[in-house]
Amino acid sequence: MTKSPKLAFIKAKWHSEIVDQALLGFNQRLDQLQVLANVDVFDVPGAFELPLLAQNLANTVEYDAIIAAAFVVDGGIYRHDFVAQAVITGLMEVGTRTGVPVLSVSLTPHNFQSTDAHVNFFKEHFVKKGAEAADAAIEILRVYDSIIKKPNARVVA
User: Fold this and answer.
1) Domain extents for the chain?
2) Where does 6-148 sit in CATH, by number?
3) Catalytic residues
4) Percent helix, percent strand, percent coil in the chain, to nearest 5
5) Which of 44, 66, 67, 102 could in theory staple to 49 by disulfide, Cβ–Cβ 3.0 to 4.6 A?
């Protein structure tokens, strides 16, 4: 990459004790990679609000990539799998419509219970997934950078 990337990291407040770990892993990995990125952090109430904010951020043309994190669990009242599918589809559509890479750290566990064992497992898992999102963000920005440098390149934006 030729410049320090400007990234948006959106995270859902629902289960924030778990979701916030993705940002921790993301920032730790950027530090390990010695990537000097400007990361703006945004909190939203839940997973369902991620795609619209991602779209609005992408439309500002300020961000090189957007990362969205959420933890969608079966609360027994609604079909969490439908919510998760809507969120992932919405995030993917934002990327294809705007040309801004949108990466997801949105997980939907098969079985989750608010026990110490489950909470601690998913906290650790979100740190790992946040680090993987940092790797993916940097890699996709390198790919985009190489495409843009080619003559006659047309990139969606």
Assistant:
1) 6-148
2) 3.40.50.960
3) 79
4) 55, 15, 30
5) 44
